[in-house]
């Protein structure tokens, strides 16, 4: 199977006046259709920079990025917006909805950018909003929605045009625990039931369980992932709290728990 996004030897150096600031040091990463990947790591480790490069918002200094088989580094500036529109949906921490447009119009605007207009756009916007259980808010304005509802609209908008790659930067940071889980459930469904490749940058340890894979970054490099162990450890920690007879070691291992 071909990855939706394939990153090889990617570096990024920012220029700050006469200073050169190296931020990414040779990143290799593939994300496949149907995969839900969390990108974690300390502040300043380069997560947003890498996400922006995968999303064709920023150019890498060197290395290769292929999206749906096309080498992005060889595209001209003029070709990048079309690459983004056809292949990538973005979700941001601050929702980025237009406050003067209704929920329906926010989604229709994204569809318009992808060439879907008029009654077809209205029908499709309703379908996308139904996917996140927000069709009943079609005529509402963003100011009348809760944070979780706004983020669900942002997810619907990111789905306009059926992009194969969904990128989200801290999508649960502004949400309470319940709304955050709701949004993560929607994003994991998009990966697991609709075959999208979903990459989420997060500091939110409440959402670890949703990940198929955790990419851990430190100082501009991908480092071995000990969060998987963290996930396993959290299962072991709550196991003795389960009422009833204790399971055998075989039962425990067959359920994927570590000892
Ligand atoms: N445009 C820029 N010019 C110069 N340096 C930058 C620029 N953008 C980011 N950086 C630097 O690159 C490093 C990585 O930033 P980045 O935002 O990718 O990290 P992050 O892991 O996403 O952090 P956080 O979790 O705080 O969002 C930081 O040291 C940041 O200051």
Account of the protein in words:
Belongs to the ABC transporter superfamily. Macrolide exporter (TC 3.A.1.122) family. Residues 5-244 form the ABC transporter domain. The structure is a single chain. This protein is an alpha/beta fold and 259 residues long. The protein has one domain (5-225): 3-Layer(aba) Sandwich (Rossmann fold). The chain has 8 helices and 10 strands. The strands form 2 sheets. It has a 6-stranded mixed sheet. A 4-stranded antiparallel sheet has the order 2-1-4-5, covered by helices on one side. α4 crosses α5 (147-158) and α5 (147-158) runs parallel beside α6 (177-192). The protein binds adenosine-5'-triphosphate. The site of adenosine-5'-triphosphate (ATP) has 12 residues, from β1, β2 and α1.
